[in-house]
Amino acid sequence: MWQAGVASGRADAAPIPAELAPAYRRCRDLHRRHGRSYFLATRLLPAWKRPHVHALYGFARYADEIVDRTDTGTPADRARRLRDWSDRFLAGLRGEPVDDPLLPALLHTVEVFDLAPADFAAFLDSMAMDLTVRRYADYPALLSYMEGSAAVIGTLMLPILGPADAVAAREPARQLGLAFQLTNFLRDVAEDLARDRVYLPQDDLARFGVTVADLYEAAAAGRATPQLKSLIAHEVSRARGHYAAALPGLDLLPGPSRTCVRAAYLLYGAILDEIERADHDVFRRRAVVPTPRRIRLLTQALLKGRAPSPRHG
After folding, report:
1. Are 266 and 258 in contact (CB under 8 A)?
2. What digits encode the pLDDT tens for the residues 230-252?
3. Is residue 13 part of a domain?
4. In the predicted structure, residue 133 carries a pLDDT above the cut 90
5. Would you give the DSSP letter of residue 73?
6. CA 93, CA 119: separation in Å to the nearest integer?
7. Which among 67, 99, 132 is the end of a domain?
8. How high is the mean pLDDT of the chain?
9. Which among 231, 236, 242 is positioned nearest to 271, based on CA atoms?
């Protein structure tokens, strides 16, 4: 059982309380298994900060698994599980005892860094949307979803990263969250189709002469049509716009945090490079950055200087 105290608003290098170690390990395991690029980048942070990043990732991943595990019940069953878990988390924020294998780590991280409860509420709202919303009419509609699923993750990270100017860093952090989310959507088009989800805006499909049926046919055939490749190229360009908008925020971060975020920036951006190398065919194979290039990018992140566009490196 863990009971959160009054938020201290003070972050320091104090060790993790022994009773919270299992919850932090659970978060770290989730991060290591499911967020390879981000997990590697987190290794560049000071050791005392890493568990708190794992806690944020573990929270997000666990909620995502509740929503995405279609083998664990009907949408109504999963909605009830998400609601129950969200209620436990919100109760913990109010200082009530929480019996959960993961949430104590997150509640401790919230307390140490005085993280905004509204950002967590926005995230949970977006997770609930995944149980009922399968299509997005246009990019503004998708952005509304991504505000909770991705942008708030960027802003929740800021107190841990410790920017010199938190106000100036907020929008770049949001943009980086959006860039990462859109990169994931493009890499995982076929995987999302298996859950009957399409994160490509419907008006973009129409613009390039693509239907949802075309997406399913491409997934079944394991190859994209020329129209689909043009659509994906358009979305890659859009994702790169978010990366460009996020870039100024790197200079606002202290050394180790800047190195960590630069690594994530380069590793995720390299996924777009792999999509381009595959001629924008996201159905033939999942875009994966080869290990030798991942090592080169991590080495590059360790070097001083401003990160280049994710198109390079």
Report:
1. no
2. 999 999 999 999 999 999 999 99
3. no
4. yes
5. -
6. 13
7. 132
8. 91
9. 236
DSSP state of 10: -
Closest CA to 209 of 225, 188, 222: 225
- Within this chain, do residues 113 and 164 fall inside the same structural domain, yes or no? no
Domain containing residue 247: 138-306
**236-293 tens-digit pLDDT:** 999 999 999 999 999 999 999 999 999 999 999 999 999 999 999 999 999 999 999 9
Can you tell me the distance from the alpha carbon of 23 to that of 106, in angstroms, rounded to the nearest whole number? 8
Q: Report the CATH number at residue 291.
A: 1.10.600.10
What tens digit of pLDDT does each residue of 204-223 get? Answer: 999 999 999 999 999 999 99
Judged against a pLDDT cut of 70, whether residue 10 lies above it is answered with no
- CA 247 to CA 183: how far, in whole Å? 16
For the chain, the domain total comes to 2
115 neighbors 159 (Cβ within 8 angstroms): yes
Residues 113 and 251 reside in one and the same domain: no
Grouping H, G, I as helix, E, B as strand and the rest as coil, residue 62 is helix
Q: Is the dihedral of CA 124, 128, 134, 139 positive or negative?
A: negative
Residues 91, 190, single domain; the answer is no
The residues, any chain, with a CB within 8 Å of residue 49's CB and separated by 6 or more, are 160, 256, 257
Examine the pLDDT at 20 and tell me if it is beyond 90: yes
Q: Is residue 5 in a domain?
A: no
| pTM attached to this predicted model | 0.90
**Could you give the CA distance from residue 234 to residue 182 in angstroms, rounded to a whole number?**
12
Residue spans of alpha helices (H) in the chain: 21-34, 36-42, 50-68, 75-93, 103-113, 117-129, 139-146, 152-161, 166-187, 189-193, 202-207, 212-221, 226-246, 255-277, 291-302
Same domain, 156 and 232: yes
